[in-house]
Amino acid sequence: MNGFHSFRYFNQSGQHRHYSFSVLSLLSFLFILLFINPAFSQWQKISSIDAGISGRVTCNGNALIYHGYNNGAILFESDNNGSSWNDYSESIPDNFSDVYSFNDSLYAVWLDGIFISSDNGKSWHMKATVTFDGGGALLGLTSDGSSLYAWSNRKAIYKSADHGENWDEIIVNDDREILMVDFAAVGDRYAAVFAGVGVLISDDAGLTWEENNNPIAITGVDADNGNLLGLTYSGVYRMNSGSDEWVISSSGLPDNGLYKIAKQIIRKNNVLYLLYYDLFAGTSHLCKSADQGYNWTAMDLTGLPAKNSASLSGYPYLITANSTHLFYYNYTTNDSLNTGVYALSIPATDIAENNPAYLPAKVSLEQNYPNPFNPSTTISFYLASAEYVSLNVYNLKGQKITELINQSMMPGHYTLAFTSTNFPSVISSGIYIYRLQAGNIVLTKKMSLIK
Prior knowledge:
Blueprint: E1 4-10, E2 16-22, H1 23-34, E3 44-47, E4 56-60, E5 63-69, E6 73-78, E7 86-87, E8 98-102, E9 105-110, E10 113-117, E11 125-129, E12 138-143, E13 148-152, E14 156-160, E15 168-171, E16 180-186, E17 189-194, E18 198-202, E19 210-211, E20 220-224, E21 227-232, E22 235-239, E23 247-248, E24 260-268, E25 271-278, E26 283-289, E27 297-298, E28 319-321, E29 325-330, E30 340-345, E31 351-354, E32 364-365, E33 376-383, E34 387-395, E35 400-409, E36 412-419, E37 430-438, E38 441-449
Antiparallel strand pairs: 1-2, 3-30, 4-5, 5-6, 6-7, 8-9, 9-10, 10-11, 12-13, 13-14, 14-15, 16-17, 17-18, 18-19, 20-21, 21-22, 22-23, 24-25, 25-26, 26-27, 28-29, 29-30, 31-36, 32-33, 33-36, 34-35, 34-37, 37-38
């Protein structure tokens, strides 16, 4: 043994690189690599791999999955927020229509097959096959939190209540020749969206269906906290649990969402993120909501290309999130420079949890945990009633380091993460004060950062 070893890895552009190191150098490299976890205060490109216009991203825990088709099916995985990538393209049977995280595993669909991976895409095996009457193929996957659904591009939906072991077929009983493009489920309420038709709703687990596109045609649908969110050519609408009415939910969007084509909504903790396409400007935009989609705030897009050709596709899955980062896939036609995956550290202002079912008796501010901390800690507080809330962090000189919250909030329990690395120029080891004001009530606590 000569004490030197070689290894191969994929860089951010997906190219092979070969290097030789001494054992000591290799151990040092692995030690550094182990602790790589980049934090991006603005959008940064983390991969130039071209997954084509059908490219998609999803997260399984903290693992980022990136798949699509470009001269063949591709699938890459990163467990360090894009610092390095594993190429699992050869492990997939063909170009997956969708890859979905459920119960700590990845599920995928292609034609009549449902596949599963328990190792973040490194290996796959067939979980089930389905039979279609009159042709068709599986197009997507979703969940209501307990059951898993696979839906086709015709009128067939398949439901599994045992993590994919068995599947029950549900048929949308409509006589028209229509093509499904999206599906969501909330308990026994199902919503199936069809091209050129809009949404059909079932309130009896798929036994009967009724078209419901008043006052606007629904072009996509998501389930969130027991409610349905409708994507339209003019912003976002919502159908609350127990109601059969679509109500506009586009406050904060330019022109209240008019001609803003809502394309995708995801939830991370208590924050909703919306991708929309401005019809007249021809540009893609992101915004977020901390109150279940009633009000939206534009996100800073610094570092992102203005135009994303993939956002024009019928059912894009271009945004996803893990515990620390948002990810965005951009595909620009004939522009390899801007095509790829981008990452943004989840801001400290993105509140992590709200439990409206529990109504506390009074406003309270909890001690952060962990404390001392490095680099992140969690701040938790309770609201007994709807209040205008501010939450700020100060140093011991009384200088404000950052504003975490400044908005109206509903009663409930809230937590959010504070990450010191988001403020490298103004924060160092020491004691800091976090101050909550809810209406006329002011509460403060101390926290210690040890670097």
